[in-house]
Amino acid sequence: MGSAPTPHIGAAAGDIAKTVLMPGDPLRAKFIADTYLSDVRCVNEVRNMLAFTGVYQGAPVTVMGGGMGMPSIGIYSFELFNFYDVGAIIRVGSAGGVASDVGLKDVVAGMGACTDSAFAAHYELPGTFAPIADFGLLAAAVDAGRERGVDVRVGNVLSSDHFYLDDPSSTERWRKMGVLAVEMEAAALYMNAARAGKRALCLLTVSDLPLSGESLDASERQTGFTQMMEIALSIAATSSEGA
Asked: For residue 221, what pLDDT is reported?
């Protein structure tokens, strides 16, 4: 479709691995690269949306920030899928727990992504599209969590366009429909993957419970996020060949 580099990613063709881990925060991408990857190279600094390519358990992996919200991850995931021939993107982010049995530090895998966004409108579909994860990546996340003693919660998440709600009671209505957690990017990632014929998964650590007001402090977030990162990296290491 296009060629690298793009208006938003300065990496050259071949600089991006077939599997990409995508936190929202580019500094979290740096943390993952510094902590887990060997032979690391910084391959993008455009708009300070840092991207690093290295090796994890013998497999090439890229970690790149995706920003906040569906417009941001929509741009980066589109360019990665279509201009860099990335085969799989695993979002690693934080979320607000919504379901009554979801607690702080829980790891959630978005099997599907409800949304209040109009992101799908540009596809001009004659109905409502249901954004879903790649089943192979999803099953691998559950298995990797089990190996580490982590019960990965699987179900619907809500990808919202709104962080500050004018009507906070809307979160309760999503809970009634079985939504596990709320975040801001998965639906756009899943739609871009579907359109490109690629693979995607959203892994989340529950950092706060908006309906009760509970939240993790900074040190607790780091511990919980590390579990999620290690699950995602294990998937990346085993899925690179099939990405």
From this structure: 75
Q: Which residue, 163, 158, 176, is CA-closest to 113?
A: 158
Q: Could you tell me the residue ranges of all domains in the chain? A: 19-237
- Interval 79-138: pLDDT, tens: 999 999 999 999 999 999 999 999 999 999 999 999 999 999 999 999 999 999 999 999
Sequence-ordered list of residues with C-beta below 8 angstroms from that of 172, at least 6 positions apart, any chain = 211
* 19-237 homologous superfamily: Nucleoside phosphorylase domain (3.40.50.1580)
CA-wise closest residue to 106 among 241, 233, 231, 242: 231
**Of 15, 106, 134, 208, which is the active-site residue?**
208
User: Whole-model pTM above 0.90?
Assistant: yes
Helix (H) or strand (E) holding 97, with range, is strand 88-97
Say whether 208 is catalytic.
yes
Give the number of other CB atoms < 10 A from CB of residue 188.
30
Residue 136 one-letter amino acid: G
What is the chain's mean pLDDT, rounded? 95
